[in-house]
Amino acid sequence: MSDRSIVALRVVKEAICIFGAKELLQAMKWAHPKYAVSLEKECKQALLEEEERKKSEQAKEAQRAAEKAKNFLNEQLKEREVRRKSLAGARCRQRINFRSF
User: Fold this and answer.
1) pLDDT at res. 1
2) CA 33 to chain CA mean position, Å
3) N or C: which end of the chain has fewer CB within 10 A?
4) Alpha-carbon distance 32 to 39, whole Å?
5) Residue, of 49 and 3, whose pLDDT is higher
6) Tens digits of per-residue pLDDT, 73-93?
7) C-alpha distances in angstroms, 48 versus 51, 54, 63?
8) Phi, psi of 20 (to 5 degrees)
9) 19: DSSP letter
10) What band does 101 get if pLDDT is binned at 50, 70 and 90?
11) How many CA atoms lie within 13 A of 101 on its CB side?
């Protein structure tokens, strides 16, 4: 037997000696449903906390994805602007070269 089992057995034997078997059984019958309700509440609370944590992680992930998409689009806009300016400069140079002839 493990240490916890030995201690629990000793506690039960002492409780029977102090309170008597009948009173102890009545107390256990009264306490068990209360314990079951308490345990059920704890389980529900744990499930709710887990669900909230998952929702929070999903929201953070969605925010990261939106930020990544935003950055990507900004980079594309910058590249297009640079290309547009370089093409405009090249056209201007072509006009200048054409006029010099």
Assistant:
1) 66
2) 33
3) C
4) 10
5) 49
6) 999 999 988 888 777 666 666
7) 5, 10, 22
8) 90, 155
9) H
10) low
11) 5
pTM of the predicted model as reported, rounded to 2 decimal places: 0.50
* Structure-token pair, residue 75: 């980079």
Structure tokens at 14: 């002492």
**Number of domains the chain is built from:** 1
Tokens of 68: 């990544």
Structure tokens at 46: 């744990």
Instruction: Collapse the DSSP code of 55 into the 3-class scheme (helix H, G, I; strand E, B; otherwise coil) and give the result.
Output: helix
Domain that holds residue 65: 3-100
Residue type for position 34: K
Q: Are 24 and 16 contacting, i.e. CB atoms less than 8 angstroms apart?
A: yes
Type of residue numbered 54: K
pLDDT digits (tens, 9 = 90+) for 17-70: 888 888 878 888 888 889 899 999 999 999 999 999 999 999 999 999 999 999
